[in-house]
Amino acid sequence: MKKNTLALLGGAKCCEIELPSWPHWDNRERKALMQVLESGKWWHGENVAKFEEDFAAFQDARYGITTSSGSMALEASLLGMGIEAGDEVIVPPYTFMATATAVVRVNAIPVFADILPDTLCLDPADVERKITARTKAIMPVHLAGHVADMDRLRKVARAHKLRLLEDACHSWGAKWKGKGTGSLGDAGVFSFQVSKNITSAEGGISITRNKALAEEIRSYTNCGRRTGGAWYGHFVSGTNLRMTEFQAAILLAQLSRLERQTERRASAATFLDQSLAELPGLRRVKPDKRITRRACHLYVMRIDPETLGVGRDRIVAALQAEGLPCSPGYGTPLYRMAFFRQGKTMPERGCRPFAAAEVDYGQVSCPVAEDICANGIWLGQQLLLLPRARLRGVVAAVRKVLTQAERLR
Predict the structure, then answer these.
(1) 242: which DSSP letter?
(2) Nearest-angstrom CA–CA distance, 157 and 152
């Protein structure tokens, strides 16, 4: 069989990419965990406080409030910002479900605005079109490590007196015009779930430069208590979203290598950008020039099925057959999920405004989001930690498949 024959059609594999094990850990994590274990101080102590301070500083914020997950950090941040029942929050449809369900869970209403084709982040012009008298906040997502156009979004938020909450759960270490993501709006949220670039298996944090907002968010994560108040004094309907000392100890160790890994992933992404730039049928996702440090959780490619004459799923199968780990990523815009398509007929179950409002998500259309859902291909952050020689195998596999796409029809 000829070497050039696609592996999916019986040829030899182009490469054999074995992803680096994840999470990365070494004696730093082992030592930190043993110190917590042996101290007997397992609950919300000096490790949590240090990680909150260090991570907030790493992202150029003043205050950090750790949580049990990124999803819970989103909810607590929305509550801390005063988002109330029936308020509208503008979100993108190309993101993980928690971006929108966090809004629902605080009894507010997600309103979907489209994304930009070059960055896959919120389109500020469409955001402005979606603002109504009920809109109270905008929640951009820095998807895959690309940064939303925070200059324009801040102008929109100021003009309409809206809160700006960054879902930065893909952008640890990213900088926009020299300033860390999460510190560009009123607050920003990061996730430390096991697939993330810095992880403690689960966990999250909300960061902000606003002391009063930080106090509000912390109260919602700490059973409604106030700093300096009585232990059994409760001021809001908060709950227990606290992080443990074990998680914080792991994250402090992880943070010590994050900057180096961020630079390595960014270098790998730039190499792929350059190596795949001229391939027919491949539409690039371009990093904004105002991003001064690129944090890559994913490397996203988008195919043009009209040029290639074949659909995305067939291309993904061919790439996987060549030995390249990849996936189609988010295959459905959030407004087409069953949860949202039920719309106003959904049982209330604590989410009264969303259930009762005249919301018909079946009428929502965001063409750019729908296009990337149909034609996007993801390479994960682990792959971006491979040495350059192995990345050349990635390039070879993509070139081989795309230049022979007509054979996949």
Answers:
(1) P
(2) 9
Kindly state the tokens that stand for 267.
Answer: 């270098």
Contacts of 342 (CB under 8 A, 6+ apart): none
Domains parsed from the chain with CATH numbers: 27-254 (3.40.640.10)
Return the closest-CA partner of residue 337 out of 94, 143, 169.
Answer: 94
Q: Confirm if 211 and 182 have CB atoms less than 8 A apart.
A: no
The confidence score (pLDDT) of residue 359 equals 80
Pairing assessment for the beta strands 163-167 and 135-138 based on DSSP bridges: parallel
Rounded to two decimals, the pTM is 0.95
How far, rounded to the nearest angstrom, does the alpha carbon of residue 154 sit from its chain's CA centroid?
19
Give the model confidence (pLDDT) of 99-139 as tens digits. Answer: 999 999 999 999 999 999 999 999 999 999 999 999 999 99
Q: Check if the beta carbon of residue 315 is closer than 8 Å to that of residue 408.
A: yes
Banded pLDDT at 20 (limits 50, 70, 90): very high
In this predicted structure, the answer to whether residue 1 has a pLDDT above a threshold of 80 is no
Helix (H, G, I), strand (E, B) or coil at 208: strand
Q: What is the pLDDT of residue 117?
A: 95
**Contact present, 376 and 330 (Cβ < 8 Å):** yes
